[in-house]
Structures are given as structure tokens and as C-alpha cells.
Amino acid sequence: MSVNEKYMRRCLEIAKNGIGTTAPNPSVGAVIVHNDRIIGEGYTSPYGGAHAEVNAIRSVKNKTLLSKSILYVTLEPCSHYGKTPPCANLIVENKIPKVVIGVRDPHEKVAGNGIEILEKAGCSVTIGVLEKECREHHRRFLTFHEQKRPYIILKWAETSDSFIAPIKEHRNSKPEPYWITNTYSRQLVHRWRGEEQAILVGTNTVLEDNPKLDTRLWKGRAPIRLIIDKNRKIPNGLHVLDGKQPTIIFTSSENQNKIIKNIELQYIESLSNYVLEVSKNLFERNILSVLVEGGAKTIQSFIDENLWDEARIFVGKNVFKKGIKAPILQGELVREKYILNDHLKIIRNDKKYHI
Q1: What is the dihedral angle through the alpha carbons of 173, 177, 181, 184, rounded to the nearest 10 degrees?
Q2: Dist CA 260 CA 241 (whole Å)
Q3: Residue 173, pLDDT above cutoff 70
Q4: Could you tell me where in the chain the CATH 3.40.430.10 domains are found?
Q5: Which residues neighbour 41 within 8 Å (Cβ) at sequence distance 6 or greater?
Q6: CA-to-CA distance for 122 and 120, rounded, in angstroms?
């Protein structure tokens, strides 16, 4: 491992601390090194706050060392005014002579401009250190700006005989989830919810399970709830209409007159191609990532359009024999693990859809 790779790995480690809080900004990690010793580091603050480079520079106690130091950062420093001033300008102002970057920023307001500012000021810039790893870490942000759509994660649990839900006769009399996985797997799912900007389910999942779609089992920000309810079948009184977190109802119904606090109705025209229409709408809303949790029909719609990036599939030990069949997809198995008796498989789509 080279010296540059060593410090870039540290950048990636601390960048994880911002996942789930920075969107629509990326969760960047930055490290400042003087004479092979870290003198400052930082990661992106929650949205609206300071970027990683700013936090790293602020953390340096002896600012005179900055003019003799190297700044490592997972993503190209920004070059435009947004919620905060440009990081590239701050680096120049502090006379940091060398910057090592993991991956270029594809955002149309950056796209090499940050690098240009640094180089014009006489800064030595190295690009592409641990680029593959940095692209993996920033996959939500990069997918959003390169493919003009959110990063889409499919998640479901299935029995050992490949059913996602039992037949109706086996369900409880009131609408609540029928669990396939154990408590620890469910807690992990709540952690995942906190890492993504939004969570999406279809009408049947809401009617059958009455889910809350929050992060009550894990400390984290509750995602925006996205509900596909084409014909406005969901009645008041279910959890998704409690107004406790921002919720968008995608519907093709002309009945748009129900107004509930924190609930927005979004009209969609196409019933046959709603997945693409929803994805475009989320891009316009600056939503970088979506966790699609169900049900089988909704998940299969994303698979059929090849509009997904990652699938997280739990396989439980129980057997239903009859019920709703689990979705079917093809992709690359990149990771698997056991959570007690639950088998978790992570699959990536190597034939992504470009909008």
C-alpha cells in the first residue's frame, strides 16, 4: 500500500460517519497530513453545514503547518457557492500546496472546476487514488449525477421456499407485518433506512402490513416515505398517513383534494411505466437514493425496467408452502453473511439503466 493509499483509506473510513445525514450532498472524508502525520481530519456535516475540507482545516490546531501539508479528500473539492462557499477557494486561501483526490465530481457545477482552481493557484493535484473504492463509497451521489436518477436499492425477505408473504388466510386479522426474519435483521434494515433519503412501497404492502417505514429500531433520520397508490385506495388511519415524516403519494387518481400535514400528492400519468416516471420525479426533487421495500409486485416492476442498482435479500429458515412468490432477478453476488439463521445476500446490477 502506498502512502497516498494509506491516507485515502483513512478518508474513506471517516467519510462513513456522514452517511444518511448529508444528502443531497455526498458524504466526503478529508485528511490533512504534515511530515507523514495526520494533523487534521473531517467529514461532511449534515446537509447545510460545513463540507469535509472545511472541517478538516478547522481541526488543525497550528494553521501555519497548512502551507507545508497535503490534503487528501475522497471527492473533488467543490468550486461553487451553495449552502457554503467553495472548498477549492478555501484550500487556496490556506496555501495548501498539494491535494490528493479520490474521484472527480460529476456535478455540473463542479466537473473539474475545483481541480482547475487548485492548479491555477499553483497547487499540485493528484487524481484517482483508490478511485474504485471512492466510487463505491460515493455510489449514490455518482449515480444521481451521472445517470440522472436516484441510486435504487431493492430489499426483501423470503422464506427458504422462496415466498415473500403467506396466503391471506394465514395472516393476522389486523394488518401488521408477517415476519420472516429475526430481530437483528430487522434492526439492520432500520439502520439501512437511516442511510437512504427515501423509502418506497406499493399500495398492497401498506394495506396488508400497515408499515411505519421509520427508524425506530436504530438511531437515525427517518427517510422520506414514497407510496405508490395509483387509485387512492389507502384509507386515513394507517401509519403512512400519520404525518410524522415527509410522505409523497404517487397517484394517477384525479381525486387530489385530501390535504394532510406532511403528505404530498404527486400525480403520475403513466400507469404502465410509473417506475420510470417516479424515478424522474425523484431526480427533480434532488433525492439521491431510494430503498424499495415492497411488495413483490412493486419490486418486480423495478426489476422488469432494469431500474435498480443493488438488491439486499434476506432468506429465512421458515417455510410457507403457499403464498406470494419472491421477486426474481439476475446480478452479481458481491457479498453474503449470516445473521443468526438469516442468510443475507447483496447483489449488484451490472447492466444499469441510464435515464
Answers
A1: -120
A2: 8
A3: no
A4: 150-348
A5: 10, 11, 14, 29, 30, 31, 32, 56, 59
A6: 5
Q: Is 44 annotated as a binding residue?
A: no
Identify the CA nearest to 224 among candidates 201, 242, 248: 248
Q: What digits encode the pLDDT tens for the residues 226-244?
A: 999 988 899 989 999 999 9
The CA-CA-CA angle for residues 192, 193, 196, to 5°, reads 90
Contact predicate 166/323, CB 8 Å: yes
Contact 160, 315 (CB under 8 A): yes
Options 5, 13, 41, 53, the catalytic residue: 53
**Biggest alpha carbon distance in the chain?**
72
Residue 134 is assigned to a ligand binding site: no
Residue 306 grid cell: 432494469
Class of domain 3-142: alpha beta
295 is in an annotated binding site: yes
53 carries an active-site annotation: yes
Burial of 352 (0-12, 13-18, 19+ CB in 10 A): middle
3 state SS of 266: strand
Tell me which of 116-120, 170-174, 250-254, 275-279 is least confident.
170-174
Helices 296-304, 274-284: crossing angle, 10 deg rounding: 80
Confidence of residue 108 (pLDDT cuts 50, 70, 90): confident
* Per-residue cell: 332: 452479481
Q: What angle do CA 335, 340, 343 make, to 5 degrees?
A: 35
CA 66 to CA 62: how far, in whole Å?
Answer: 8
| Domain 150-348 is found in CATH 3.40.430.10 | yes
Q: Is 299 annotated as a binding residue?
A: yes
Cell of 273: 411505466
Helix, strand, or coil (residue 6): helix
* H or E stretch covering 208: helix 203-209
CA 248 → CA 245, 264, 294, 323, distances in Å?
Answer: 10, 5, 16, 29
* Stretch(es) of the chain classified as CATH 3.40.140.10: 3-142
Does the pTM surpass 0.70? The reply is yes
The distance of Cα 153 from the centroid of its chain, to the nearest Å, equals 8
